[in-house]
Amino acid sequence: MPRKLAAAILILVIAGAVLAPWIAPFAYARQFRDSPDAGPGGRFIMGTDDVGRDRFSRLLYATRVSLLLAPAAALVSVVLALAISIPGGGGFAPIRRPINGFTTICLSLPWLFLFIILRAELPLNTAPLTSALLTFGLMGVAGFAWPARVFTASVREIRESGWVLQGRAAGMRGWRIAAVHGWPHLRAIAAAQFRVLVPVYILSEASLGLLGLGVSDPLPSWGNLLQELQHPDRVRANPWVLAPLGLLIAVTICLESLQGLPAGRRRE
Amino acid sequence: MNRFLTLAAGIGVALAAGIAPAANPPKELRFALSGDPLTFDPLQAADSNSETVRYLTAGVLVRVNRATDSVEPELAESWKLTDGGRTLTFHLRDGLKFSDGSPLTAADVGNTIARALDPKQASPTGDTIRTAEGTPEIRLLSIRDIAIRYKTPMPGLDRLFDQVGIAPAPLAKGTAKLPVSAGPFFIAGYKPGVSVTLQRNPNYWKRGLPGIDSVRLDIQQNRDLEIARFLRGEFQLINRLDPGNFDRLTREKPGTARNLGASLDSEFLWFNQSPAKTLPEWKRQWFRSAAFRHAVSLAIHRDDLVRIAWKGHAHLSAGPISTANKFWFNTALKPLPADPQQSLKLLAADGFVLREGMLRDRGGHPVEFSLITNAGNRARENMGRLIQEDLKKLGIHLNFVPLEFGSLIERISKSLDYEACLLGFANVDPDPLAEKNYWLSSGPQHFWWPLEKTPATKWEARIDELELKQASEGSRESRKKASDEIQRIIVSEEPVIYLVNPDYLCAISTSVHGAMPSVAPPQLLWNIEWLRLQ
Questions:
Q1: What DSSP character marks residue A41?
Q2: Residue among A51, A125, A211 minimizing CB distance to B308
């Protein structure tokens, strides 16, 4: 995909999200009770949902919630993972071993059950926005282990690589090796992990909705809009039900295409 | 040579099989179970899947006709209630046999009932025929006669034996053998997670029945896949359809989906009135105020719930008993209209003030509470969204939280850490006595405050009194009077706010004949032995 096109699509999606209060024809929570399940066209561009809420308005606001919170959560995971993997990939075994043990434990935890227990500890009376922040925050913290595993391996690989060895032989200091040789390599890997985590978190939010976590009614998010896909008959009745999925795929692909940018430029 | 013989024999069998079915093909009925049956012991069945298998296989002494609600003879040719409703004597048919050919005598009946009543067995079926006043005495009078004697009169005693599946001496635990039975079918095979296969019982006492050779119950949890398989012709029945799928079948396979009108089930919400520590004192005061409960109830547009959440496939509730329950429903009760103005008046009289779009109580606390329900039930979740919007108009901030089913049950029955709950009941028995545990203030499932030590209010004390009266009086008429008063009290105090009675929707393939669906479970299957396939 041409980079310009990818950038244009991303900008369009982000603009839609930012300008939602001005573009959206209706409030996202407003129920038009005389026209539930309305088809696309006419008063409602994308039709209405089960309880008569305008799908287009809800999609705009959902984009706002998901495109802000999912990358934030992914960022939390990546930063945490980096923080833990630099000593974890280091040569000092007394630190390395417990850190990697901890990551392994986190990888093997049954997170679904932990989330069920967690839901029981959280108060039931949380505003939709608070519950959204909590959910994405939790996913961000809980999701550090996978990228941490990847980063740890990369740190070790970089540390043992030829150019680092040469740098050391040439008398470069530790922090300088890290800045000149380590970070540029690690940054690319971190960016890739970030791109993978964003759609994963958007989808995870949909399944957490079943546990009473997630973004709660009436606030829309891609996750809770995607839950509708469990009922195939709805897609047949109104293909716009697929719109959030389409956006999710588009954003993922665009992020992917843009990623190569700095490297490409260097090559030019 | 050997191989050739086998092959020839194989062809022979195939030919025989090919010729015979042309004249009379084996008739297999297929439909879905929503999960694995947890037990095949008819006395232990408690989940709906085990109950379905029990109903299709276990022989019973009497059967309640789901169409007429009268009690009809089954394994027992006749029975009589004597001694002022204390003693029930059954006279069995001649020559009864189990599916394996062994005789079924009064001794088997006696053993079954004794096993059901044995506290060590903790049989859910036993619970329905047990009383607080000690175990009834079982006496074998002859090989075909048996008497069961209670210490106090039991209302509607004969009906209860509709659920007691007569079984031979129990199989030892761990035996791989499937149980034999005396009903229309016996269990021929079970593949966990896949299917249960039932075969026609050759020794069924109704000669020439059932009209179907075998039944295959496929374990299919996903309702959408169930519909897809029905549309493909792989299933011939759907015992419970949800409103969305009903409309779809009506469109795509006309003549199969059926609507029987309001079912016995109801959808309702209630507030936590228990002294749970998790509930702030001021909220408890709202929830214990009848005016507050009425105000919430009057704010809800039940007609919208029916039209939007249930897509028109429900009826307005008028109280705890569904209008479909012809005998027991109190006809003096009418469905509640929505009246937000009246709501505001009631709230104002109770000290609530509406300021800047937010309702506040006397102490200035904003009126905000959470409503939990089980996640995944589309119609119920939509009801919650509509109620949330209705209450917003009163200045009440409702947080709607669908929870995973296990944690919901944990909250409403054990930890009592919740504020309000939206739920529905699938009613099994039209007789209101079956719901005693929900209404008795000391009952373990007493909605708003389980296991109350003493009734907290006068009206709860009155309900207790009436429930006990219902449970000990023999005549249906005097029990009906008590039940009418209970219904009136519940509607005037609204500890439980009744919303709608969903319609009973099912689907029957055009190849099935003789179905007489009823709203009383097992709706479509109750006359299984009379069904025929074409």
A1: B
A2: A51
Give the 3-state secondary structure of residue A32.
coil
Q: Is B50 exposed, middle or buried (0-12, 13-18, 19+ CB in 10 A)?
A: buried
The CA distance from B168 to B232, in Å, is: 40
> What pLDDT digit, counting tens, does each position of B7-39 carry?
444 444 444 444 444 445 668 899 998 888 888
| Nearest chain A alpha carbon to B390 | A31
Q: Which of B401, B415, B418 sits opposite A216 (nearest CB)?
A: B401
Asked if residue B365 has pLDDT above 90, the reply is yes
pTM for the predicted model, two decimal places: 0.81
Task: Look up the ipTM and state it.
Answer: 0.83
Chain B touched by A127 (CB under 8 Å): yes
* Interchain CB distance below 8 Å, A29 and B389: yes
> Strand B368-374 and strand B397-403: pairing?
parallel
DSSP B366: B
B50: left (phi over 0), alpha (psi -120 to 50) or beta: alpha
Tokens of A64: 């706002």
| Best of B277, B386, B387 to mutate (most A CBs within 10 Å, chain A) | B386
B402, A212: Cβ pair inside 8 Å?
A: yes
Asked if the C-beta of A227 comes within 8 angstroms of chain B's C-beta atoms, the answer is no
H or E element in which residue B257 lies? strand B257-262
| Token pair listed for B514 | 């003789």
Nearest Cα to Cα of residue B426 among B116, B52, B60: B52
Residues of B in contact with A124 (CB under 8 A): 370, 372, 399, 401, 417-419
Provide the phi-psi class of B395: left if phi over 0, else alpha when psi is between -120 and 50, else beta: left
Contact B404 A33 (CB under 8 A): no
The verdict on B338 touching A (C-beta cutoff 8 Å) is no
Asked whether the beta carbons of B212 and B532 are under 8 A apart, the reply is: yes
Instruction: Read off the pLDDT of residues B53-109 as tens digits, 9 standing for 90 and up.
Output: 988 998 898 998 888 888 888 888 888 888 877 888 999 888 888 888 888 888 888
pLDDT recorded at residue B132: 64
Across the interface, do B309 and A125 touch by the CB < 8 Å criterion? no
pLDDT tens digit string along B413-467? 888 999 999 999 877 777 887 787 788 888 878 889 988 888 889 999 999 988 8
Q: Please give, rounded to a whole number of angstroms, the shortest distance from the CA of A212 to a CA of chain B.
A: 5
CA–CA gap between residue B284 and residue B276 (Å, rounded): 9
Domain A3-265 part of CATH 1.10.3720.10: yes
Domains of chain A, residue spans: 3-265
